[in-house]
User: What shape does this take?
Amino acid sequence: MSQILLSKVNEIFVESYALYLKTQHHHWNMRGAQFQALHDLCGNLYQELSEGIDEVAEHIRASGAHVTANFETFHLNSKLPINNSSANIYEMVKDLINCNEIIISLLNESINLSMQEGNNLTADILTDRLRWHAKTAWLLKMNIE
Assistant: This one.
């Protein structure tokens, strides 16, 4: 894996972990008419995100690189918006949609780079993550339309 692609995969790891934390935050702090359904959905999402994060981290390690997973790394490198602690349930869902769409864009760029490098394994792993984030964004959108 080239350094450029490795950097992109690390970025996906950081953004995915930041989304994991954000999803947990929203799961714990939601309130309103759709609370139970969205609370349950967010609980499922952060559990599934955990598995995806692990797969990406293990792929980084398998490529011979070190995985840096600490709050400083996430804080300094994540481009996802900071949580608004006073957000209502609708704003929280829109935030999760936006964050998934940011990661979808990053995944598309990284898949294209993987294919240009002939790195089918990385492209396959990232395509699985792309599929998951696209479905998640759709599920969230269906809850606020």
